[in-house]
Each structure stands twice: as structure tokens, then as C-alpha cells.
Write a structure and sequence with these properties.
The protein is built from 14 helices and 12 strands. With about 325 residues, the chain is of the alpha/beta class. The chain has an 8-stranded mixed β-sheet. It has a 4-stranded mixed β-sheet with strand order 4-3-10-9. The radius of gyration is 20 Å and the shape is globular. It starts with a strand and ends with a helix.
């Protein structure tokens, strides 16, 4: 029996995008044949096209061949223009959160020619930004605790195994015919199965928005304080004052979420933040890595987004406000 071809694209294939796309390309599916295409930086694309992609996990190295990588959209746009049936089944958007709009404008023709656009980024509210330029019924959101580091062009280190959650961020069941709704459920199940078979433990959740908030609670507590002090995650817990402010930042974010009527569980999110910091004790968080590499951080989509929502709600979040200002000042000092 011939395998069903699936075309999967990754826009902004850096560390996490390369990890997901690489694992999908590496697995030999019985039923499907995935063609994986990366859109990424020139040096990364050249390394992949020449030698393939390497993923390093613990003591294992995966040499992955067959990925096609491009530094921009032009060649694929030409294919779309010449062949109107050319389309992606799933295309991942894995740029930094602050590059969402730029990427969507640059790759608009490709996104338009895709069945689903999958948002895989840090932050909250990203799906609202994307929905300004893309139909809500084709947006899927991913929240993952997998960690990745782009060590050099063509080489990704899988720094931490985690759980991936996927779901539709917009509830539009009433707007769909039963057949269309069933197709959506079938498609997201297909995505779940692909990721699971590829080695990325994945579940479907009913409320992906609340899941994105839960991850942000952890990020607002760990990331900016780690970036400001240049301490690894576990080291933050060893200093009483820093641990206190981690908890206060999370507490403020929880209050904002409750005011916004986000459906939260009864978890102790402050304790969970400390637990994650302990489990990833040797890690330099992503915001710290951005600072060390002289890059812009995602502070506006983490603590900064908490401040933005708080201002609209008319409540105070002093710790998140200070952390946001300090990180933005640190960014300016490095530019």
C-alpha cells in the first residue's frame, strides 16, 4: 500500500522548530511519508542541506537526512504559483514571539496554502496576534516542556525531555458543519499521533489557552530573574530573596489570569515553579541565553504581557512591572 504523503513546514526553524521538525523527519511511519521543509537562517539551511540535521540527546546522536531547508520563502512561493495544488498539511510557526507578525507577512502565501498553522512559542496571547492575519479555524497551539539548544548550524541539543500539549485555541464548533468538525478532530489526532510516533510525548487538551498560561506562570518566575542575575535555574532557589520574588511574580500573574476568567486548575503554581527550577537546575533559561547572546528577549510576551493585561484590568503588578523594566533596560545596555 502506498504511503500517504504529508507536507510539513517549519517557519523559523531554530532550536525548538528544528527539534520538532527533525524528529518528525527522522521517524519511519508505516502509513505516512512526511516531507519536511525548514525555513531558517542561511547558515543553518546550508548545513542541513549539505550534511543533514544532527539532534543530540543524552549520549545519542540522530543523523537526520531528507530535510529540505531554505533561507526564505521565494522558492516555495514559486512552486505554489506554478502548482495551485501545492500545500502544506501542517506548518509550524516557531519564531520568537516578537517576530510573529513579521514572519506571517513574509510567509503569507505559504501560510495561505497550508491547511493548519501551528503556533509553537513562549508567551500568552500569541494566538490573538496570529488570528489578525489567519483564519481562526486553521490555528493550532502547542505548549511544550521540551527543551532545545541550537549548538551550531545543523546541530540541535535536546536539553530536556518533556510533555507536549496541543489544542485549538478558538472554540468555533457551532460555526462548523458536523462533517467539518469531525475532520478537524481527525486532523488534530493525526498531528498528535505523528508527534508521539516521532518520540515527542503529546496529548490533546480541551483548553490550550489555560495550558499556555500555566507555562507562563513558570516562565515569569524563572526567566527574568535568571536573566538578570545570570544564575542557572537551580541556583535561583538557593538565594532566599530571589526565591521570594520568583513566587511574588507568579502570584501576580495568577491574579491577572483569574481576573481575566482563565480556567485554572487548583495547582499550586508557585510550588510548581520551584519544582521546575529544581528539575532543570543546571539549565540557563532561554531569556538568559538571549541576554548572553546579545539578542532581544521575549519579556513583552511574558512578564510584559502580565503588565499589559493588569493595566487594562486596573490592578497593580509591581514585581512584574519592575522585572519587565529591568530586562528591557538590560537589552538596551547590550544593543
Amino acid at each position: 500500500m502506498d504511503k500517504i504523503k504529508l507536507k510539513i513546514g517549519v517557519i523559523g526553524a531554530g532550536s525548538i522548530g528544528s527539534l520538532f521538525g527533525g524528529y518528525i523527519a527522522n521517524f519511519k511511519f508505516k502509513t505516512y511519508f512526511p516531507e519536511v521543509i525548514f525555513f531558517c537562517r542561511k547558515d543553518h539551511a546550508e548545513a542541513i542541506n549539505k550534511n543533514g540535521l544532527k539532534i543530540i540527546r543524552n549520549q545519542s546522536t540522530y543523523d537526520i537526512k531528507g530535510i529540505k531547508a531554505y533561507e526564505n520563502e521565494k522558492k516555495i512561493e514559486d512552486k505554489i504559483s506554478k502548482n495551485l495544488s501545492f500545500s502544506f498539511d501542517f506548518i509550524f510557526l516557531t519564531t520568537k514571539a516578537y517576530d510573529i507578525e513579521t514572519a506571517i507577512f513574509q510567509y503569507k502565501k505559504i501560510i495561505d496554502a497550508s491547511k493548519y498553522l501551528i503556533i509553537l512559542q513562549n508567551g500568552i496571547g500569541n494566538e490573538e496576534n496570529v488570528s489578525k492575519f489567519c483564519p481562526k479555524n486553521k490555528i493550532i497551539r502547542i505548549v511544550t516542556t521540551n527543551g532545545a539548544l541550537l549548538a551550531e548550524p545543523g546541530k540541535v541539543i535536546h536539553t530536556g525531555l518533556g510533555l507536549t500539549k496541543i489544542g485549538f485555541p478558538f472554540l468555533i464548533r457551532l460555526d462548523l458543519k458536523p462533517k467539518d468538525f469531525e475532520q478537524r478532530q481527525s486532523d488534530i489526532n493525526l498531528l498528535k499521533n505523528i508527534l508521539n510516533f516521532a518520540g515527542l510525548k503529546t496529548i490533546i487538551v480541551d483548553d490550550i489557552i489555560s495550558e499556555s498560561w500555566e507555562k507562563v506562570f513558570i516562565n515569569v518566575g524563572i526567566n527574568p530573574i535568571g536573566a538578570l542575575t545570570q544564575l542557572r535555574n537551580g541556583e535561583l532557589l538557593e538565594i532566599k530573596g530571589l526565591k521570594y520574588y520568583m513566587g511574588e511574580a507568579v502570584k501576580e500573574a495568577i491574579n491577572v489570569a483569574r481576573m481575566k476568567k482563565i480556567n485554572l486548575s487548583e495547582k499550586d503554581y508557585i510550588a510548581l515553579t520551584y519544582e521546575v527550577a529544581k528539575k532543570t537546575s543546571k539549565n540557563k533559561n532561554s531569556m538568559l541565553q538571549d541576554i548572553l547572546n546579545g539578542k532581544t528577549t521575549e519579556i513583552d510576551f511574558l512578564n510584559g504581557r502580565i503588565v499589559k493585561y493588569a493595566n487594562k484590568l486596573g490592578i497593580e503588578v509591581p514585581i512584574n512591572k519592575v522585572l519587565t523594566s529591568l530586562i528591557k533596560g538590560l537589552e538596551d545596555s547590550l544593543s
